[in-house]
Structure formats: structure tokens, C-alpha cells
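Hi R.,

Here's the chain you asked about this morning:
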Amino acid sequence: MTAEAFAPAKINLTLHVTGQRPDGYHLLDSLVVFADVGDRLWLTPGDQLSIDVSGEFAEGVPTDHRNLVWQAATGAGWSGRIQLDKALPHGAGIGGGSSDAASVLKTLAIQGLPTAKEFHLSLGADVPVCMAAQASRMQGIGDQISRVALPKLPALLVNPGVPVPTGAVFSALAWRDNPPMPSNIPEFSSAQDCAAWLSEQRNDMHVPAAAIAPQIDQVLSEMKCTGNMLLARMSGSGATCFALYPTMIAAHRAAYDIGAANSDWWCVATELS
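And here is the predicted structure, written out as C-alpha cells:
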């Protein structure tokens, strides 16, 4: 029987790089939420493992052991055909591959093939938080996940079509011992309150990512010109940026305006939670 899975886009509302361990892993403090847009997968059991990729962003997605979906299925001891409808840009700072892998792992766990948390982390720092797929604070090397209560956040996601290698951004960081977020994240009564607090936080990856892909700053500049914009920031290591709005109507208007002026950009209004 074929099982269907949804892999939502992961958005880093904040991303503080707080240190680096002797083994090279970076220490992070990040507030993470998930969108209502994402990839879709269908898993059909069989004798051999295969991945078929379709969708808007299928080009360039590996269909062998280089794909985290393949590694997730293999690690769970599952074989069969995986159909991946790639609706999210890859190399975009929104955890597409990690979310795909997490959705496979959760689907297989329901079918009696659970996997250990250590394995999830071995696939990538974003996989554990993608397993949670809810508003969370991610700390350590991605292994410390705690749930956070946040209001639903109307948002716009924009990617200018430029992939940004995460490793290159980390390598270009000028400082790695930056302050973490406050110990306690307050309760917010509205998207406006949340955005005001977020404006005091950071994404430490922004400067090196924008040096690699200057289009990031162009996206942010255009976002800041949209009506009722509360906050605009890059997600993850880029190049996707998000903007927050008080209502979904405002988010949809911004998506229309930016998309009309930049037909080659990926623009989508969404609700983050």
C-alpha cells in the first residue's frame, strides 16, 4: 500500500551561531517554525529502493544515495519506490532535503520501522527539528529541541533562484562566538508582538550568505517596501527570505506585488506555525 507524506518548509525566524566545537560542528540557537507549503512524497514498498523526482524544482535533485531521502529509507531498513514532488527550491535555507528525510522517517516509524534520534542527527542538523515539525527552539548542534508556543504568523517566502551552499556560508563566518537568544522566549499575543521581539534577534548567516548571493539583499529590500510588513529576514543559510505580516491578506498582496515584478523568483504566501 502506498503511503503519502508531507514535508513542510522549515523557516529559521532567528539563527544565532554561538560557537564551534573542536570536531567542527557549529553550535546554534534558533527559533524554527514550519510553513503550510512543502514537498509531497509517496512511498510504495518493493524489493529495490528507487527515487523518482518530479515537480517545479526537480532539476538537479539526486535520485541515489546522495539524497537524504535515500539515506533515511536505507537507515530505516525499508525498500521500495519513493515519488518526490519537489515544490520547494533546494539549497535554499528552508530545510527541503531535511524535511523530506524527516517525513520519510516519520512515515516509516508509523509502519513499524522506528529509527534512533542519533541517526536523525547524523543525516543533518535540521533533521531533528524537522521530525518535530512544529514551532521549536533548536540548540546545540541541532540535537536540543524544545517546543515553543507562538501565534500563527502570516508570511511571504521569496527565493531569487540562487542556491547557496551551507558549508560555504559557515566557512565565511567572521565570528562564531555570538550571543544566544534570551533564555526565556516570551509569550506573544499577536504576530505584531512576535515580530517586534524577533527584530531584536539575528540571523548570523546573513552577511556571509549575502556576500555569496547579493540577490538576498535585493529580496529583503523589496520585501521591506511591501504594505504592512512587520519583519523581513533571511532564513537559514539563504537564499530564501521571509517577511511577516499582520494578516494573510497582506501576505498575499505582497506575494502578488513581488511576484509580478520578479517573474523568475519563487514567491509564496503562507502561514507559519
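One quick note: The first strand starts at residue 3 and ends at 12.

Cheers,
M.
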